[in-house]
Design goal:
Length: 389
């Protein structure tokens, strides 16, 4: 979906396909047929943006076989789909029964991460629509915080600088400007937007920036306005933003609230949980750990890294952080010029929701994703952007 900003530039809205796990190119092609095109039709659109997640094997197949890449581009066109952004955070296995900490491997100190992200950039340069020259990729925020010593930190910095050089060469070769954004996430070396400032300054390249995920922003209790203003002041480019909402519990000390939270404690994904105290931010790596005894203070609200559907906040006594998303979006695209032109709805946890909230059929998932995109579209038009055909 495309929108015209009041300054005349085009803002792209997509939804991320990591909600439809696939490890191979055949699986990706099946996603387009079974999920992406039905969402487009449900919205009544001639064209729909998707943020592709390409696992290691799918990316390798595309970057080593030009005919496969042409075939994917043809299939996108045939189904009324377009790609300007990729989710490069998960490397493989995102559809496994248990993902948890595995999603942070390989990190940027491992050579596989550089090679995979380079492959994604080359693939994206070949997938961009003919009238689009800028592409974006979100990636792991360097590494999970443990086992990250000075040596690995320097190795990671060198790898990201090498990526920047490769992006420069790719732009010269193809005329396509591909940028990569570190995506701050609770528990990682770069947990907040503030944590990103020093590493990005050390890298010092305008094709390496930040991906602002509004669920992660909210989970860390970051106020979106000063957070985004600090990025602007530091001249850190917002490569893309993932529009997502976290799980919010206003009164976590109450038994009924803990019972409601326990329904979201599931075995597949890590749900980092945070609370803001007078002594600073406190947290656990997972929701179950927060619910276990007194691991986390409960005198103030809790937020958990659980991407809940944008249009359907959990029932009381829980809610979502949709207001944080709205505040961030107003700053990202509501000003005289957009801070980013790539927006991506990223609710990948539909099948991890409590059983009574999960879509029971493919058509229900289609309707849910379409409803999220409709909400995002309405927020954008309320900010003065004009939806394009």
């Amino acid at each position: 979906m495309r929108f015209r900003h009041p300054d005349g530039s085009t803002v792209h809205l997509a939804y991320c396909t990591n909600v439809h796990p696939a490890e191979t190119l055949d699986g990706v092609l099946a996603q387009l047929r079974d999920h992406c095109e039905p969402v487009r039709r449900r919205l009544g659109r001639d064209r729909l943006g998707i943020g592709l997640w390409l696992a290691k094997d799918a990316a390798h197949a595309l970057v080593t076989d030009p005919s496969a890449l042409r075939g994917l581009r043809t299939e996108l066109d045939r189904r009324g789909l377009e790609v300007v952004t990729l989710n490069g955070f998960p490397y493989e296995g995102f559809g496994a029964e248990e993902v948890k900490y595995r999603v942070y491997k390989p990190d940027w100190a491992d050579p596989e991460r550089l090679e995979h992200t380079t492959a994604l950039a080359r693939v994206l340069a070949g997938l961009l629509p003919d009238d689009v020259t800028e592409g974006s990729i979100s990636t792991l925020p360097l590494a999970w915080r443990t086992a990250y010593d000075d040596h690995r930190a320097e190795t990671a910095r060198v790898a990201v600088r090498t990526l920047a050089e490769r992006l420069d060469a790719l732009a010269e070769l193809t005329g396509r400007d591909i940028r990569v954004g570190l995506e701050p996430e609770p528990g990682c070396i770069v947990e907040t937007t503030g944590d990103a400032l020093a590493p990005l300054a050390a890298i010092g390249h305008d094709r390496i920036g930040i991906c602002v995920d509004t669920c992660h922003l909210a989970t860390s209790f970051e106020d979106p306005l000063p957070a985004l203003d600090a990025l602007t002041e530091a001249r850190v480019p917002v490569v893309k933003s993932q529009l997502s909402a976290a799980l919010h519990a206003e009164h976590p000390h109450l038994p009924e609230v803990r019972e409601a939270l326990a329904a979201f404690d599931e075995p597949r994904f890590l749900h980092q949980t945070r609370t803001a105290t007078a002594a600073g931010l406190r947290g656990t790596d997972d929701l179950g750990q927060a619910l276990d005894g007194e691991a986390l203070p409960d005198a103030s609200p809790w937020r958990a890294h659980f991407h809940v559907p944008l249009h359907a906040a959990p029932a009381a006594p829980l809610t979502s952080t949709l207001d944080v998303l709205k505040g961030a979006l107003a700053r990202l695209v509501g000003g005289p010029h957009p801070l980013t032109r790539h927006l991506e709805v990223e609710t990948y946890t539909w099948q991890a929701l409590p059983a009574e909230l999960r879509p029971r059929a493919r058509s229900q998932l289609t309707e849910g994703i379409a409803a999220e995109l409709t909400l995002a579209r309405d927020l954008l038009t309320d900010l003065g952007l004009k939806e394009l055909p």
